[in-house]
Design brief:
It is built from 13 helices and 15 strands. It is an alpha/beta fold. Strand 1, helix 5 and strand 2 form a beta-alpha-beta unit. The protein starts with a helix and ends with a strand. The relative contact order is 0.14.
């Protein structure tokens, strides 16, 4: 049997040959780029790339064909990206990023007209106050109303919840993203501390019904399970639940909401910190109609439709890996009226001005049926 050290030396020799052949291949790719420039051919040739991968799988035993396909796909993508760079080509998304960075504002707005869902005291209002020093807030009955207010120019910005560390993504907001024109300009992470709010003089034995937002209800599932005789009803948000309890004057109803709602609506805090997880945070997105990238932007959100073929999602994720870009969130939502098609949402951690981010934006459209750049931003903690 061959000694392990000798086997490893043999592998090192093979790797050296592979590196030399890789450089040869990239030199050939540069020649291809110049030829395509001279005759006006596009860089991306889907049928050619499909044939190359198919031949690679035929040259190896069946049990290695999938690995050969992955290897050849990586080589093709490296070649294609090198051709884009050599020719100085930019995708539409990459050009938008370049233009936005060139027009970058010096400072994020300190005051603005902002749309929020609900009423005064909602967590969205608290997030708005964290993002802006002085905001004039208009309240709307629904998340859709917030999107429309921004889209139609009624408000400069809108603040919406997008995910919670305990209850997960706010699916309704993600679904609405598909049908509205907007950009994310900042996000905010807010610690959520839920309290049981009641009218003065109420005891726990008096309570028959608790109102709150569906996300807050999920975040307090264990607490509510300990009170099986109390009915739980969801409403638009926690502030509206508090307002409803206060206006009723009824000791049989209570709300799960923030302590600030207790002060705002003259309610008592019967129990505090009733959420299941004390380390409970919600992320909020600040949206605007027009694309703007402010200083410090180190996160990006994208929406993409990817073909329903084996390896399609892998090709997108492989680009993040190849460029050393960290994927911090991946969400998928079914597209209405399109059977078995999904919209994928990606949150990436990478400075908007970084060269690797520009390379990513320049190449993603080749592996996505549809690609939408939602914006680059920083997060307020």
């Amino acid at each position: 049997m061959e000694d392990l050290e000798d086997i490893r030396k043999r592998i090192d020799g093979i790797d050296k040959q592979i590196s030399s052949l890789f450089l040869e291949r990239m030199d050939a790719a540069a020649d291809v780029a110049e030829y395509k420039r001279s005759v006006g051919m596009p860089v991306f040739d889907r049928s050619r790339e499909r044939d190359i991968v198919a031949r690679a799988t035929e040259r190896v035993p069946a049990n290695l064909s999938s690995y050969a396909a992955v290897l050849e796909t990586v080589l093709i993508e490296a070649s294609r990206e090198a051709q884009y760079q050599r020719l100085g080509l930019k995708s539409e998304a990459a050009q938008r990023v370049t233009d936005a960075l060139a027009e970058q504002s010096d400072l994020f707005p300190q005051q603005a007209y902002v749309a929020c869902q609900g009423v005064e005291g909602a967590y969205q209002q608290m997030a708005c106050d964290r993002i802006f020093k002085r905001a004039q807030i208009s309240y709307f009955d629904s998340f859709d109303g917030v999107f429309r207010a921004v889209e139609q120019g009624f408000c400069q910005f809108g603040v919406l919840p997008i995910e919670n560390s305990t209850a997960g993504s706010v699916n309704h907001v993600f679904d609405l993203m598909m049908s509205h024109d907007f950009h994310i300009v900042r996000t905010c992470r807010l610690k959520i501390d839920h309290c049981l709010l009641v009218n003065p003089g109420t005891t726990i034995d008096d309570i028959k019904v608790i109102y709150s937002h569906e996300q807050a209800i999920r975040q307090c599932a264990d607490y509510l399970a300990n009170h099986p005789d109390i009915e739980v009803h969801s409403c638009e948000n926690t502030a509206i639940a508090s307002k409803r309890v206060a206006e009723s004057g009824d000791k049989s109803v209570a709300a799960i909401a923030s302590r600030s709602c207790a002060n705002l609506y003259d309610l008592d805090v019967l129990e505090q910190s009733v959420q299941d997880q004390q380390n409970n945070y919600t992320r909020f997105a600040c949206i605007a109609k027009d694309l703007a990238i402010y200083p410090g932007a180190d996160r990006t959100s994208l929406m993409a439709v990817i073909s329903n073929d084996p390896g399609s999602l892998y090709k997108v994720l492989a680009r993040f890996y190849a460029l050393n870009i960290n994927l911090i969130k991946l969400e998928s939502r079914p597209i209405p009226d399109r059977d078995f098609e999904f919209m994928f949402y990606f949150d990436l951690e990478c400075p908007a001005a970084a060269p690797e981010f520009k390379n990513l934006m320049n190449s993603l459209s080749d592996v996505c049926d549809e690609l939408r750049y939602l914006g680059s931003y920083s997060e307020v903690v």
